[in-house]
């Protein structure tokens, strides 16, 4: 993925049991043009793969990063893919 520099105009991190968000970004943060394209990491876990995937889908739906391009939509498509869900 290519970097997407710019100002993050709105940000909300997902949370809850089994959800972890790791990042340094915030609303108003300016992503510089020369950076590692991974500005954050979203991790979920659960008792089963199905539970972890369901938590990831909920967390992705809760995550808000406005002002720059992200791969959140792609990640949601991956989580919804039947081949991925069945491992």
UniProtKB/TrEMBL annotation:
The catalysed reaction is:
N(6)-biotinyl-L-lysyl-[protein] + hydrogencarbonate + ATP = N(6)-carboxybiotinyl-L-lysyl-[protein] + ADP + phosphate + H(+)
EC number annotated for this UniProt entry:
6.3.4.14
Any idea where the Biotin carboxylation domain is?
Answer: 1-87
Membrane-crossing ranges are none
MF GO annotations: ATP binding; biotin carboxylase activity
Superkingdom of this entry's organism? Bacteria
Q: Name one Pfam family in it.
A: Biotin_carb_C
Give the matching InterPro entries: ACC_Biotin_Carboxylase, Biotin_carboxylation_dom, Biotin_COase_C, Rudment_hybrid_motif
Enumerate the PANTHER family for this protein: BIOTIN CARBOXYLASE, CHLOROPLASTIC, PYRUVATE CARBOXYLASE SUBUNIT A
* Protein name (record): biotin carboxylase
Q: What is the originating organism of this protein?
A: Enterobacter agglomerans
Query: What are the top taxonomic ranks of the organism?
Result: Bacteria, Pseudomonadati, Pseudomonadota, Gammaproteobacteria, Enterobacterales
